[in-house]
């Protein structure tokens, strides 16, 4: 979800010169472990954005304190700050001790590294971590991406609609659903018993993907997994916070979930 909420949002306290110098990650010595000083995290995000929800789930899993800089049409200054922080103009962006961290997966890895809580979202074991990263990529690339292609087609002018691209996106979703249904057999979460980065990615991607291209009744493992994600308190909270924005969903939100 993006264009329709992109420049929408509250008020950054950082002076401009610090923002302009901020790109460059990691900056040695700038990031302090949580034990040494109070957490100073600001998240630029919108509650209805799928990639923002991915990071919000990670923050809520560990009750990590952060300032929420909500982007919105009613706060152009927040959008301008985002553009200064990350000229590619994508949300979410996390600012940690004046250092912007971009890309949802990297933000979650950053939280796990610098602000760990009881729920470790990236396993300490390198081999297990690889599986988690692989599944994170699967959800972003093969569920989130085609889902967004379908959603954004609704934002195009009638003459610029792309039926071929939408049909292809639906095929991609079908392929991903089928593969995931097999991969999830016998698993509670994406990679087994522990909730991880991969589940943070899975939750919003499957949530919205099912809205635009319903997961078939035959794919019981995937449907049950999506239901478990919806029942997870961290994601349930993100879904509730986004509920007031459902009317913005370009294809129209279904009357469920
Ligand atoms: N790869 C990025 C994707 C972020 C992304 O696409 N965010 C959308 C909102 S869900 C956005 O900011 N779109 C604005 C735009 O495309 O202009 C990530 O993982 O953070």
Structural overview:
With 257 residues, this protein is an alpha+beta fold. The chain folds into two domains: 3-114, Glutaredoxin (3-Layer(aba) Sandwich), CATH 3.40.30; 126-232, Glutathione S-transferase Yfyf (Class Pi), Chain A, domain 2 (Up-down Bundle). 50% of the residues lie in helices and 7% in strands. The protein is built from ten helices and four strands; from the N terminus they run ααβαβαββαααααα. The chain has helices at 3-6, 16-20, 50-61, 76-85, 104-114, 126-153, 163-183, 197-212, 220-231, 233-242; strands spanning 41-45, 67-70, 93-96, 99-102. The longest helix is centred in the middle third of the chain and has 28 residues, at 126-153. The chain is globular, with a radius of gyration of 18 Å. It starts with a helix and ends in a 15-residue tail after the last helix. Glutathione binds at residues 1-3, 6, 49-51, 89-91, 103-105. The site of glutathione (GSH) has 13 residues, from helix 1, helix 3 and helix 5.
Short précis:
With 257 residues, the chain is α+β, with helices and mostly antiparallel strands. It contains 10 helices and 4 strands. The chain folds into 2 domains: 3-114, Glutaredoxin (3-Layer(aba) Sandwich); 126-232, Glutathione S-transferase Yfyf (Class Pi), Chain A, domain 2.
Pick out its properties:
Glutathione S-transferase Yfyf (Class Pi), Chain A, domain 2; binds glutathione; alpha+beta; globular; single chain; 257 residues
SS field, number of helical segments = 10
Radius of gyration computed on alpha carbons: 18 Å
Unreliable spans are 1-29
Assign the CATH topology of the largest domain: Glutaredoxin
Q: What's the architecture of the largest domain in CATH terms?
A: 3-Layer(aba) Sandwich
Q: What sequence of helices (H) and strands (E) makes up the elements? A: HHEHEHEEHHHHHH
Distance between the termini: 17 Å
Outline type: globular
Bound molecules: glutathione
